Amino acid sequence: DIVLTQSPGTLSLSPGDRATLSCRASQSISNNFLAWFQQIPGQAPRLLIYGASTRATGIPDRFSGSGSGTDFTLTISRLEPEDFAVYHCHQYGNLPLTFGGGTKVDIK
Amino acid sequence: QVHLEQSGAEVKKPGSSVRVSCKASGGSFSSSAISWVRQAPGQGLEWMGRIVPLFGKAFNAQKFQGRVAISADKSTATAYMELSGLKSEDTGVYYCASGQFPSYYMGVWGGGTPVTVSS
């Protein structure tokens, strides 16, 4: 199984700051099938990025994904109040599908 | 645009089973992949398995082998997840999520079904 390790566990930032979240895989992810989800407490996850770098429909361009192979990054260029949430990375290139442990972005 | 409607909250006794449904509207149900994802209280996301209704065969995570049954009814565009031998550790929110051919990334999620296992 591919293990995804997200870092840091918690990121404390202020609105307007830049956020950089990391996701490292235990082995190379086929076709760079890596996605990022945002989850606000009490809500279902929402797809932000798929294919490592493609924004999903309706996702603002302050969200960007990069990386390939085993190292991936989600960047939020300028944090808006609604961006304080938990972010999960997920690989869908190999069965079984797996998720990272999540990074919480909270207000400093 | 696909929309997924899940069944309501459940409270179950240890050792019993729970069946959660996920009805899809819009999009192509048969050629999609429906995954089931669990989230224990305060924890991360855990993939349980998925089914492509067109093929009918489910692939389950090893952790749930023998306890989970994922199925789909193409005639009603509804997927089901049944978990048996419930334990208190199975308490959490169960989500279905849909992905379209060919890469099946989980683009649309249901609202979640809370399941509480308690004696």
Describe this entry's structure for a reader:
The complex is a heterodimer of chains A (108) and B (119). Chain A is mainly β and 108 residues long. Chain A is 0% helix and 49% strand. Chain A has no helices and eleven strands. Chain A is globular. The model of chain A has no long low-confidence stretch (mean pLDDT 97). Chain B is an all-beta fold and 119 residues long. In chain B, strands 2, 4, 5, 6, 9, 10 and 11 form a seven-stranded mixed sheet that branches. A four-stranded antiparallel sheet of chain B has the order 1-3-8-7, with no helix packed on it. The A-B interface holds A 1, 31, 33, 35, 37, 44-47, 50-51, 56, 88, 90, 92, 95-102 and B 35, 37, 44-47, 50, 59, 61-62, 95, 97, 99, 103-112.
Quick summary of this structure?
With 108 residues, chain A is mostly beta strands.
- Major beta-sheet overview of chain B: 7 strands, mixed
Q: Order of SSEs of chain B, N→C?
A: EEEEEEEEEEE
Low-pLDDT stretches of chain B are none
Count the E strands of chain B.
11
Structural class of chain B: mainly beta
* Overall pLDDT confidence of chain B: 96
Cα-based radius of gyration of chain B, to the nearest Å = 13 Å
Structural class by SSE content of chain A: mainly beta
Provide the residue-averaged pLDDT of chain A: 97
